[in-house]
Amino acid sequence: MPTLKYIETPIDYKMRILICGLLFTLTASFCTAQKHFAEPCEGVWHGTLYMYSYGKLKDSVEVTLTVKKTNDAEIYTWKTDYLSAKWPITKDYLLKRVDKEKGIYETDEQNGVVLKNYLVGNKLYSVFETEGIFLTSCYELHKEYLYFEVTSGKKINTTQGVINIATEHVQKVYLKKK
User: Fold this and answer.
1) How far is the C-alpha of 38 from the C-alpha of 67, rounded, in Å?
2) First vs last Cα of the chain: how many Å apart?
3) Where are the beta strands (DSSP E) in the chain?
4) What is the C-alpha separation between 20 and 52, in angstroms, rounded?
5) Same domain, yes or no, for 74 and 155?
6) Is 66 part of any domain?
7) What does the pLDDT read at residue 35?
8) pLDDT class for 178, splitting at 50, 70, 90?
9) What is the pLDDT of residues 130-140, one digit of tens each?
10) Of 11, 90, 104, 155, which is least packed with CB atoms within 10 Å of its CB?
11) pLDDT value for 25
12) Per-residue pLDDT for 77 more than 50?
């Protein structure tokens, strides 16, 4: 049986270059994904938070988010000011990365409450329950804005072992850096 020799063609060479470029890009993306979620968020952000109840817009409030580094590279301050004339609120939290490889973060509300967060791509997710209310929260980082959304609701029924939870309330804001 004759021995076959591999002869590289210009197409093979181009394909190898293309594959090497793709691997470089994927490696660079992976390394970038290892950055702390808050690092590119550092600064002051502003936007209007819209509040919906059962699908209808009920209210809105101006919001400022201030993100700053702390002395610990894994912890950033995450301060949200709700600039309401009637009920101004400040949420002064800490965002801590606890597992770089798995993308696990914690939001420390600095009052004994610590919420788990999970980074997937450019989104930081949290799902939790308090006093029978189920909440989801998501920060989604884009080049020109930071999108934040919270949903809340209660169990409404169970069918075939599946628990349904209503999405009764939604709050969302597109924050832009000042």
Assistant:
1) 7
2) 73
3) 43-53, 56-69, 75-82, 89-99, 104-108, 114-120, 123-130, 133-141, 146-153, 155-159, 162-165, 169-177
4) 48
5) yes
6) yes
7) 86
8) confident
9) 999 999 999 99
10) 11
11) 39
12) yes
